[in-house]
């Protein structure tokens, strides 16, 4: 097992390994971050607001004199967790609908596809703003908004894969054998879609992290007292003129997370493509 | 002027373009339905909101009748749709003026910012894309690949705050707020817009450059490229005169997608730099639940997106060399 992992990592490019490190780092922070926080994230512990890097407060203090490192460590949970859940929901819903259209009668396929094409033509930020205006921004609703916004994209990719796979010989054979639609969708088509859909899931995760932190930055996302990384940037925006770490650090945190995922996916899909070329 | 070749091109291209226009209009109609019916999900309505909690039921009913809110949803949708098309998208509760007036004050700002950003980003993106495609898998290409991959995933507020820190806090070159007085000289306008343009460009350049690279590389493996190279034509010329026309379709498509982002995606940039554009207007509409304004903004952004896609499709059809020689 460890050998398999080691050779898997060895096959990654340099940037892919950097991405892997960043992804693992943020997953760890998101799961155990709150326990590592040196201070209570809500407590006013520093003497100065917008303090720089000091021994007591490694990432400085925020606009109320709270410890930025502690707030970052507990805010990552929201950014990573919400986005992970939303991306999972979007991908699962997209794949399920795509499988449904692949084995359903033509009229149903065309109806669903047309509807999804319509949703795709609404720019994602605009779509999510309209949704947030209507449903509000509690945590479960934000999760829902993000997954509805990015589900059509996932559906489109999954459908094009599923439609191609449905033409394969082994699927035709299964059909002639008299297998049911559910069997064909789940046992014949689905297993061959998993790999590309995993890459798509990663991209969707990146989009959703950016969307949710953007919404929080606008004050429309995660609401106080909860704070994700985007909220941290928003609440410290007045420190911009002083170049306070309180505004830069959360923004850099989001960037390392999204860039990390992107680098890792690129390394994985790039390798897949090269291997496919060699065969 | 119109030789047989041109006439042949128009004869084959026009039906194709007409089809795209029709499909675009249909999509726009469906989008308007989605936008309208999502807005209907909001509990309470305009009359209730205007008069507040203390209003008598009679007063609310009277106002409802005045705005036509007592009509069934399909009828209200049709009225709204006709209003949108004829340039009267309703009345903004929060601004207390016609939505068209509110938007008319902001739209030119958004278009200016988008146009200037496009002017900067398109040439840079094309250059990066072509350079990395020509030096495929060389050190330059790998470097640019990691750079654009990272840029794609950067949050706008990081780019914007870094720009402010460098150019207005450290170097003191540029103002950190993009408020333009009415009588500003073009130079002053450019100076105030420099950082919003820079931020938007960084975000869209990466995506466009990646797509350009991919489109060109796909062509590079074609036999006609090998033929041209074997004939001894310089690689740079092969790419510019032989490959580029064939890759123009996907490239223009990527440009359209990225440029549509310059309008609706400018939300965060407009907020950070206090720029009075359409996207920040839409954010205000969300915070104040000003549905008529919100719906109108959403429709403008969707129309702009579909228009850009349509232009890209048309360019791709017209530029397709196979179609031209038929």
Beta-strand content estimate of chain B: under 5%
- How big is the Rg of chain B? 24 Å
Q: Which structural class do the helices and strands of chain B define?
A: mainly alpha
Approximate shape of chain A: elongated
Main β sheet profile of chain A: none
Largest interface: A-B, 46 and 52 residues
Query: Cα distance, first to last residue of chain A?
Result: 25 Å
Question: How widely separated are the two ends of chain B?
Answer: 18 Å
Q: Give the class-level CATH name of chain A.
A: Mainly Alpha
SSE string of chain A, helices as H and strands as E = HHHHHHHHHH
Q: CATH H-level name of the domain at 107-288 and 299-324 in chain B... which superfamily?
A: MetI-like
Largest pleated sheet of chain B = 2 strands, antiparallel
* Spatial extent as radius of gyration of chain A: 22 Å
* Average pLDDT figure of chain A: 85
In terms of per-residue confidence, which ranges of chain B show pLDDT below 50 for 5 or more consecutive residues?
none
CATH homologous superfamily grouping of chain A:
MetI-like
Overview features:
heterodimer; A: 279 residues; mainly alpha; MetI-like fold; 10 helices; disordered C terminus; B: 326 residues; 14 helices; 78% helix; 1% strand; globular
Give your account of this protein's structure.
The complex is a heterodimer of chains A (279) and B (326). Chain A contains 10 helices and no strands. In chain A, helix 6 runs antiparallel to helix 8 (181-217) and helix 7 packs across helix 8 (181-217). Chain A has a single domain, classed as MetI-like (MetI-like fold, Orthogonal Bundle). Chain A is mainly alpha-helical and 279 residues long. The radius of gyration of chain A is 22 Å and the shape is elongated. Chain A has helices spanning 2-10, 14-36, 68-103, 106-120, 124-135, 139-166, 169-176, 181-217, 229-235, 245-278. By secondary structure, chain B is an all-alpha fold. Chain B has a two-stranded antiparallel sheet with strand order 1-2. The longest helix of chain B is centred in the N-terminal third of the chain and has 37 residues, at 4-40. In chain B, 78% of the residues lie in helices and 1% in strands. In chain B, helix 1 (4-40) packs antiparallel against helix 13 and helix 5 runs antiparallel to helix 6. Chains A and B meet through helix 4, helix 5, helix 8 and helix 10 of A and helix 1, helix 6, helix 7, helix 10 and helix 11 of B.
